[in-house]
Fold this protein.
Amino acid sequence: MSLPLIKKQFIKHGLAVATASIMASTAYAGTNEQQEIQQLRAEVAELRALIQQQAATQKQIVAEQKARPVVVASAPAVVVAQAPAAPAPANAKPGWFTLPDGQTQVKLYGSIRADATYDFKGTNADTTNINNPTNKVPLNSANATEDALNVTAATTRFGLDFSRPSDIGEITGKIEADFMGSSGTNGTGSLRVRHAYVNVGKWLAGQTTSPFVNVDT
């Protein structure tokens, strides 16, 4: 075989190999492109399904919110702070009231008493309340001085005690009155002051029972 013939055959063989390689490469490239397109289509379909699912979920949430009853929150109650009560003094006494200054204590007291007499044989001036209208009613038309009725509440009493600590000792006092008036052993029915005094330690100033009177009797 001559050299020009061999060279020509090599050239023909080389062209065949190159042509086969190009065809193989083109086929391989076409296959990869188809796979990528199929993969992209699958991903797009998956994304579309997710979007549709999300939209359906959103619609369901909106529908549930519209179906719920509307609850209107009421305004919180206004709490009015109250000033703390004044502390009771250390010498607080049962039954006494403490004034706003926190130191002065007072106690109200009293008693209601009614007396009645019926005189069959004549009026006794010592048991007559001269301001009592029942004494003016003649119970015996034949003798007005007999069968006399006397009813009175002149001995009813009411009073006020007070107490307050001080630098010189406890200050106490009393104001008390009844309706005995100033004349007659059974009174006149007018107001009469029995006690009105202030006491500090062993000193007392005002009106009260005489020290020479036995208060137990």
User: Anything to note?
Assistant: Residues 3-67 form the longest helix (65 residues).
